[in-house]
């Protein structure tokens, strides 16, 4: 199992979205953890791919 560490995040969201996040946080905190982890992982992969050489459009 991966070692974990708690972090506190503060973000500004539109009111309707913030209300929904609060609801999920109270009702299903593990789901919210997974959503945030998924988003951060996608961003890390995207940043890694962007940092690589530009795509040449050729295979092989």
The helix content is 55-70%
Mean pLDDT figure: 87
What is the N-to-C order of secondary-structure elements (H for helix, E for strand)?
HH
Quote the beta fraction.
Answer: under 5%
Number of contiguous helices: 2
Shape: elongated
Largest sheet: none
- What Rg, in angstroms, do the CA atoms define? 17 Å
Count of extended strands? 0
N-to-C span = 36 Å
- Uncertain runs: none
Structural class: mainly alpha
Characterization of this structure:
The mean pLDDT is 87. Helix 1 packs across helix 2 (29-51). 0% of the residues are buried. Helices cover 60% and strands 0% of the residues. By secondary structure, the chain is an all-alpha fold. It has helices spanning 15-27, 29-51. The chain has 2 helices and no strands.
Please sum up the structure shown.
This protein is 60% helix and 0% strand. With 60 residues, the chain is mostly helical.
Q: Which helices and strands appear, and what pairs or packs with what?
A:
Elements: H1 15-27, H2 29-51
Question: Which structural traits does this protein have?
Answer:
2 helices; 60 residues; mainly alpha; elongated; 60% helix
């Amino acid at each position: 199992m991966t070692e974990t560490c708690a972090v506190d995040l503060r973000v500004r969201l539109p009111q309707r979205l913030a209300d929904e996040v609060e609801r999920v946080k109270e009702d299903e905190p593990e789901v919210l953890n997974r959503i945030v982890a998924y988003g951060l992982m996608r961003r890390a992969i995207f940043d890694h791919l962007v940092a690589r050489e530009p795509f040449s459009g050729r295979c092989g």
